[in-house]
Amino acid sequence: MQSYRSLTLLSCLLLLLVIAGCDPPNQANSSSNNNAASGANKSSSGTGEDVKDSSNSKTELRPPKPIFEDWEKPQAPALAIVLSGEQNGYLEPCGCSETQSGGMARRADLFAQIKEKGWPVTALDVGGFLRHSRRQSLLKFDAIFDSLTDLQYAATGIGPSDISIGPTKLLERGMMEPKSEEQILPQFVSANVTLFGDPDSLGAVHRTRVYEVNGVKIGVTAVIGQSVQQSMLQTTGDDIQVLPVEETLPQAVEELKAAEADLYILLSYSEVEESQKLAEEYELFDVVLTARSAEDPDPRPVPIGESGRLMVKVGQKGKNVGVLGYYPDAEKKLRWELIDLDNRRFKNDPSMAVHMQSYQDNITFEALAKTEPTLTHPSGNQFVGAQKCVSCHSKAFQIWKNTKHAHAYETLQKGREGQEHEWIPRVNDPECLSCHVVGWESQEYIRFESGFVDETTTPDLKGQQCENCHGPASQHVKMEAQWLVDRESVEKAVVDAARKELHLDVKTAEKQVCAKCHDHENSPKFKFDEYWEKVKHPFRD
Amino acid sequence: MNPKTLMMTVAVVVVGLVIVSMVSAPSREDKILTPPQEQDTLPPPPEIKTEGKQPKVVTEQTEFDFGKQAQYETGRHTFKIYNQGEAPLELSQGESSCKCTLGNLDKTTVEPGDFTEVELEWTPEGIAEAGSNKKFRQYAVVYTNDPERPEIQFNVTGVVFAYFQIVPDRSWPVGELTIKESRSVKGRITSMSEPFKIKSIDATSKFITADFVELTEEQKKEYDVDNGYEITVTVNPGYPYGDFEDFLILHTDYKEESELRIHVKGAIKGPFTFLNTTRQSGVRFSTNAWILDMGSFSADEGRIVEMRVFVAEMPEGENFNVLSAETDLEFLEVSVTGDDQPAQNGRAEVRMKFEYKAGSPSIIRGGSQPVTVTFKTNHPEAEEFKIRVLFAAN
Prior knowledge:
Mean pLDDT of chain B: 84
Number of strands of chain B: 27
CATH topology of the largest domain in chain A: Purple Acid Phosphatase, chain A, domain 2
Structural class of chain B: mainly beta
CATH topology of the largest domain in chain B: Immunoglobulin-like
Radius of gyration of chain B: 35 Å
Number of domains of chain B: 3
Number of helices of chain B: 2
Strand order of the largest sheet of chain A: 6-4-3-2-1-15-16
Helix content of chain B: under 10%
Low-confidence stretches of chain B: 12-40
CATH architecture of the largest domain in chain B: Sandwich
Oligomer: heterodimer
Number of helices of chain A: 20
């Protein structure tokens, strides 16, 4: 027996040694699987928002390249000109995920970093500030322009999305009166956009602007190119007109030439190809800032001709801005750097918080959620809230109650974990509400008639609830109640039809429902199979 | 061996297996880097040595153009990284644009003379995803221990197209109209595949009508499409003052888009356009509800808020006049200047001044109890109108 025992122990030892000598199972993969599972469990405990990147993955990154490397060799630029464009409504980094780039607060930090270097700075924008043309867009336009004013932007072009909000806001901002003689207001410049048929646009839009910073005289104009005009609505209205470039730009060029500036810049809201043609044709311009580049464009400037002229791109959504360094005494007079406004090199400059606060205050003041036009739900039914569902679907309700979906509204009140101290609540903001409450068309930010209005009016419709996926349940609730009380009073077929109307299969959810909120921007790492595990509720009672 | 001993042995083996699998380092060959969303923490960037033998990164290409890429279709491209140096090349995954996936980085170590492959993939979900002009450029970075080239950025570029598209997008803002005005806008619906027909167009409002005509060959060439229609939407008088939003519903025989909705919106403006051009802190005017919030201020100091008001639709040759401006609170004075100027092109401009007089009592007038200012004018469309005023005079 003793020898058997020894043999067994020896075998075990040998086996262990053999195993130790073999390649182990892939550690990264096994750890990945474990973490994926624990991540799912953690998430389903439900502590906050849902419509955001909830992945636990982390990429350890090298420190990013410092900005403006070698820009002070042999000497600092005489002027730094920040160029931006096509913000497309993104006051904050694109999407809800904190790792994404952009935002006015980080842009303000870039300005602060430039000023810390002691470089004189000015800024221009090609236009395209908005994405939508709703009343909220007007308020956002104000917030953006108040931010640009603080950052001392000198001029901006006008893009199609800015035109789509109508002439009144352009008139108001264009006629804005400075608070003091020192205050620089961003002026609208455009060679080919006019308001109310007046060539001078009632003083709200200027054909050119010539101004001086640190002894450098800058001349600027802007156009909306033919290539972009063809994708805009053609209208019979004359309150905003976009005229052909070839008929209008030459006049602006003559005006600029007469001003004898040191540096000429064209803000070209055109396709890149057209901007390049304009840059080649109009040799006056040292720099052409083009719109319509990719969201994260090629950072390299495009040389135009042999004399050091450039065409530059800044992308979309304010994720990147470019800085032009002007070195009047150097052989190479211009340097260009496209800067990704990431969260590693740039912090949120607190000076911009006041504009976000004011924007949210204005949204509340205008009561947009209550007063904007609503949609009738295609089913004709009304939203009733999850509390009506619980009496029959108790198990599913219990699952839902512990998901992040149930707490989606709280995120709008308190922000994500770690953001609480600087969070500005956005509980009345339709662009946020549409994925955090019940009864909104989430991609267009339009409330259905019976959807969530505010915490007081519709307290039962907070959070992402059953009906956002299954549809409004008023008919189903009514039929079931009637059926319970008196089975003679309603036909079974009608009861069944109301049930069927709310049935949602997993395939449809995956293809048509979840992605309305879990889109690329707001949930960049969304994977249906993984996320479904956190919310699935295969119970009927 | 008795059962107890046998169980002990099995237990030892199992525990041993678990321990070994937990503590052993993976072999180099098996260090397969998975995409970031599938693992918790990626290996740290490789350390760059300044002395001794070095690796040397060589790439044939770092940029690939997909050309035209259809919406929702995934594009993939594999790039190669060669090590033409004398030391092993260590690789790790760096940042990438948020919509780009670095698929497979076969190896994290490439021996001298060897190579590895990385795959980039991207699926455009919407035209807007690629930017408003449909161009895209996505990137992913790979870190290396080559001191001459510590990172490699791979890019994929291209232009996204949709087989079926409404231009502009699905929202057609008609703009600001006067109550008697009729306005038309033109957009288009196009296809990059087989021909389709619009069967009919309905509107959710009786004040909206729509016509459609097939695109000419010239237009198809200009817009770079195979088929399509130009759609003219007309908003006729009938909407009340304020914003309007309705839908055009297009019925087509296109298999996947048999019913399309276009969001038509705009605003019917009254004869007055209020411009808050002073932008005092905390002062706001709701153009929707005609409520002026003068903000919070010291009652001792008082506050003046001025607004520029454009007045339209005056009969030709007549001046706009404010006959009276009365408030229901004696401490708030309202005056109008500039109404003695003749209208030009049917448009006049006046300035309205709202003054809470300095030294008046501390009063708060919120949304439930605003001060009402009643204006009487000679405007045929607005003989009387009211502005509600809110403030907190502390």
